[in-house]
């Protein structure tokens, strides 16, 4: 048993090094692209030669890292084969996880990975492209946990699954153009050309830690998935923060009282967009107290709204004050979030063991994504001011 753990630990260390090499390789490829672009501005042969020398140096470094990565992957495969052989020879005992291919639930598969430290031969486990980390799909979390912690604003954002670290994503802007009629056997009428823009995205890796070490798991019978669930929202908090940063770049449109809010979604925002209202908690507290001349509250009860209220038929979402600004700030975004911002998702939340000076290894939490504004006209950001009736 200890021999298997030692081999797994060595495989994990090498897998961590592979992940580091992959990041370095990606960075070198970007450097190579940037260096090659300098050829377009080269004014003489000396400048061309200088670029050529730099490209050769980058390529040599790239070749070395690719070779190192290939060697490590072979060593990892060899270690995993040794672990598999040891497991095959180990005595078996009756349990829920029967050898022979019984399919494990995803939650059990993730827990098994965390305990064993290896991704190989765990039925039902989803892994990253490199195979060094386990993915945690939202659907494996307990429903009550998702409902309690997930900000519904995240579900409004358009998610684009991508398979590379960067690229261009074509976006067709919403339009008010109409189709034209034509008589039979007549030439087709000339139609307005669609407004297509390309959005550049560049995937970044965000990291966190789950407060559990390999020693803790070895020493006690922890409910591993309960620990994972408690910190899973680190990834969602990161997404929400990045999305909020984009929403804050919208065209400024401040609002005084409820009439000011109405003017934004009735006059400024084009009717082709489906408007939602995102407000800070301080702003929602202020709106929740406003009454009309008859003493009735202005916000309308709405069981489908996450806040329980809507205004003018527009759903109201809340975020903490500090997501849009500072404490007690009354800030808002009004617009079509799915058209205004897109999240480019390279990888779901994943976990893997990473080196730590004190505990040897800690369970790391990772997401890879980018968030970009795609349609400037789809929303407005501003400050709300109460109006005394």
Please provide a brief summary of the model:
With 389 residues, the protein is an alpha/beta fold.
Describe the structure.
By secondary structure, this protein is an alpha/beta fold. It has 10 helices and 15 strands. Strands 6, 7, 8, 9, 10, 11, 12 and 15 form an 8-stranded mixed β-sheet that branches. Strands 1, 2, 5, 13 and 14 form a 5-stranded mixed β-sheet that branches. Strand 10 and strand 11 form a beta hairpin. The longest helix has 45 residues, at 45-89. It is globular. The termini are far apart. 24% of the residues are buried. Mean pLDDT is 79; it is low at 91-104.
Radius of gyration over all CA atoms, rounded: 27 Å
Give the tally of β-strands. Answer: 15
Mean pLDDT: 79
Please estimate the helix content: 40-55%
What can be said about the biggest beta sheet? 8 strands, mixed
Spatial separation of the terminal alpha carbons: 75 Å
Ranges where pLDDT stays below 50 over 5 or more residues in a row are 91-104
Mass-distribution shape? globular
Tally of helical segments: 10
SSE succession: HHHEHEEEEHHEEHEHEEEHEHEEE
Question: Given the helix and strand composition, which structural class is it?
Answer: alpha/beta
Give the amount of beta strand, in percent: 15-25%
